[in-house]
């Protein structure tokens, strides 16, 4: 490099790190992250993409704008309650507090009175048993898939799992329960047909090699038309006669029957109907943290707890804290969204639209032309969905605010980020899953998005 090469004027790393604004912002970041940012900017300058004079400013902007976690909160305006891509169930305020409290040292496995070790997660287990009286005992693991792996490993590794051909479920992203079960060394013994499976089909397949009978709730699809399935009481008689566990994977985690989802099975009823063990996720309709719940007969839960794999799939202290608080606290956001009264939602949406029109007409118009035509904002009927949690096909009647489709991208990339529903060339804002306290921020985000897109 000769002495006139502009690259000689690129500030050195230590000089950049000493800049007061860089040093201040760096307090909130690891050394590695700060050095990577600095190196990246210097390299752009060396490549001629940036003038050496602009390096300081670029480093300051990059360091000040860097967050330690890239996960951004998103306002869910889709009307889909258990939105898989948005992390499923949002936690209740009680669960969020418990989560923060559990973030430091906590007595998750210690009796403070005696100073002795205690059973891990005993309080979360007790809360679960109180909410599901038909269960003798419960075990909490990492997620629903882990619960299924643990149960099929413990009861059927090297043996057969009897499962209906109508219940070969793919739960998402190419992830199939059948592959999961076979990965444990259990063999799948398919019974019946896709649309019709009777109790006799299971009976005919039962034999020396049977490890367990598994009934899987098709939580994301529905088989309709010429169909038949064996009921839990029938299967319970069959399984009981051969002393083989009957396991019901319900997926959704509805603790008890809910009139909003009449066809959705619940844990308590499934146990009363004869299932020896039920499996569910904590972050679907139960509305809690990611967790896998196993409830049922005490002897079976004891076998699962003692299995070496139980240690590999155990729930972490944060999940235990949040689950207990979800169960003991007031109605969680998932249940609130599910039980939203359509007329109340309509009134809320009309009021939101009115506030938005007022906001738009008050604001000085940044562009030429007609600009936002506030009269075009209409409140239209819009069905919500439970989403990935179960009751997949059940429409939840409601209302939404209709915006031009162009607003969707501006909303997704705005601050705060908003995910609307894009449907039929329109952008819909459904308030079902938007907490009251978030509504003012949403109003601002929508006004900004509409103004930025010059729409409607
Ligand atoms: C969702 C689901 C699972 C998997 O649970 P995760 O908590 O996602 O691991 C298993 N079985 C059924 C029926 C499900 O619906």
Automatic annotation (TrEMBL):
Q: What cellular component GO annotations does this protein have?
A: cytoplasm
**Which pathway does it operate in?**
Aminoacyl-tRNA biosynthesis; selenocysteinyl-tRNA(Sec) biosynthesis; selenocysteinyl-tRNA(Sec) from L-seryl-tRNA(Sec) (bacterial route): step 1/1
Cofactor annotation: pyridoxal 5'-phosphate
Matching entries from InterPro entries are given as:
PyrdxlP-dep_Trfase (IPR015424), PyrdxlP-dep_Trfase_major (IPR015421), SelA-like (IPR018319), SelA_trans (IPR004534), SelA_trans_N_dom (IPR025862)
Q: Which GO terms describe its biological process?
A: conversion of seryl-tRNAsec to selenocys-tRNAsec; selenocysteine incorporation
Q: Any idea where this protein resides?
A: Cytoplasm
The reaction(s) catalysed by this protein are: L-seryl-tRNA(Sec) + selenophosphate + H(+) = L-selenocysteinyl-tRNA(Sec) + phosphate
The organism's superkingdom is given as Bacteria
Q: Which residues form the L-seryl-tRNA selenium transferase N-terminal domain?
A: 7-46
Q: What is its main location?
A: cytoplasm
Residues modified as N6-(pyridoxal phosphate)lysine? 284
EC number of this enzyme: 2.9.1.1
Any one Gene Ontology MF annotation carried by this entry is: L-seryl-tRNA(Sec) selenium transferase activity
Question: What keyword terms does UniProt attach to this protein?
Answer: Cytoplasm, Protein biosynthesis, Pyridoxal phosphate, Selenium, Transferase
Tell me if Cytoplasm is a UniProt keyword of this record.
yes
Instruction: Supply the HAMAP family for this chain.
Output: SelA (MF_00423)
**Record's family?**
Belongs to the SelA family.
This molecule's function is given as:
Converts seryl-tRNA(Sec) to selenocysteinyl-tRNA(Sec) required for selenoprotein biosynthesis.
This chain belongs to which protein, by name? L-seryl-tRNA(Sec) selenium transferase
Origin species: Brevibacterium rongguiense
Q: What is the lineage of its organism?
A: Bacteria, Bacillati, Actinomycetota, Actinomycetes, Micrococcales
